[in-house]
Design brief:
By secondary structure, this protein is an alpha+beta fold. It folds into two domains: about 30-90, Arc Repressor Mutant, subunit A, CATH 1.10.10; about 95-295, Beta-Lactamase. It is built from nine helices and seven strands. It has helices spanning about 30-45, 50-60, 65-75, 90-120, 165-170, 175-185, 200-210, 255-275, 280-295; strands at about 80, 90, 125-130, 135-140, 215, 225-235, 235-245. The strands form two sheets. A five-stranded antiparallel sheet has the order 4-3-7-6-5. Strands 1-2 form a two-stranded antiparallel ribbon. Strand 1 and strand 2 (about 90) form a beta hairpin. The longest helix has about 30 residues, at about 90-120. The protein is elongated and about 70 Å long.
Length: about 300
């Protein structure tokens, strides 16, 4: 019987993976972030511009890997390259982020006694949030210790810009370009009461400017209401927002006068500490408006 020919091995399939340079390990996204942070740390510690070779030696990494990270960090503005020497230094965005972080940490420490005051005087959970690209982020809370059922908000929470008191208040004092970007994006409803009509929200933003507070009645969670007021720094720059959160029976809509006035008093004191007279000017505008309305 004739022999059957031996099966030939199929040719190897071309690899779709990028080949690595000698001595280079493949990095996943988490490791890549760690290397990028180490690059920034090294530049910060050096306090001067550094070249690729010097950075690679200091980090114990290959020059190609360090160069790739430097290129990406330069693209996003975290580092800059001196065109004359090709050396790298920290960029404008690092300063911007550091300034924002410093403001937030300073605001949190300054706001702590006011969060306690709001909780103890109004008997509700008090909340501090800061603006991040036109949206609020909660950075500190004081839970209501007086109620049998506590409504709590976790730090790190990001209320929606269009259907939350903190969100609309932040949006109201954001630049017009940020407002339009937010209002042109799709808006989801958290409850049947959520505000999602751009025209209605624009009108509401104007009202917030006039009254220096916002209310959200059951828009994020049925039966839960929030009152928020702005905190300013350096004139009219929004630094953050103070709010109280509670059940609709304790935080009604429209809100009680004492609730709004206590929130605004705390926010006005905080704003003054941050070099803003926004509340004083707002009070003068209100008095002038009342005087005109009193004329026959």
């Amino acid at each position: 019987m004739p022999r059957s020919p031996a099966a030939r091995p199929s040719p190897p399939k071309p690899s779709t993976r990028k080949s690595l340079l000698p001595g280079e390990k493949k990095l996943n996204s988490v490791e890549a972030v760690k290397v990028a942070v180490r690059v920034l740390d090294e530049l910060a510690l050096a306090q001067r511009a550094m070249g690729v070779t010097e950075l690679a030696e200091a980090l114990g990494e290959t020059k190609p890997r360090v160069h790739r990270h430097l290129s990406t960090l330069r693209e996003v503005g975290l580092i800059e390259q001196d065109q004359a020497t090709d050396r790298y230094r920290l960029g404008w965005r690092v300063f911007q982020l550091g300034e924002a972080a410093g403001t937030q940490f300073d605001l949190r420490s300054r706001a702590e006694p006011y969060l306690l005051r709001l909780r103890d005087e109004l008997k509700e959970t008090s909340v501090l949030a800061v603006p991040i690209n036109g949206s609020p982020m909660v950075i500190a809370t004081m839970d209501n210790i007086y109620a049998r059922i506590c409504i709590s908000v976790k730090p790190g929470n990001r209320p929606l810009p269009h259907c939350s008191a903190l969100g609309r208040l932040t949006l109201a004092f954001s630049p017009a370009v940020v407002q339009e970007e937010m209002l042109s994006a799709p808006m989801t409803s958290e409850t049947p009461q959520s505000m999602t009509d751009p025209a209605r929200i624009r009108k509401r933003l104007g009202l917030i400017h006039e009254q220096f507070y916002e209310v959200c009645n059951g828009e994020m969670m049925l039966g839960v209401n929030t009152i928020a007021v702005p905190i300013f720094r350096n004139g009219d720059v929004l630094a953050g927002a103070l709010s109280i959160v509670g059940s609709i029976q304790n935080v009604p809509n429209p809100p009680r006068r004492k609730q709004v006035e206590t929130l605004q008093a705390c926010a006005a004191e905080l704003s003054a500490q941050l070099n803003s007279d926004a509340y004083q000017r707002w009070q003068l505008r209100r008095k002038a408006h009342d005087m005109l309305n009193a004329l026959v």
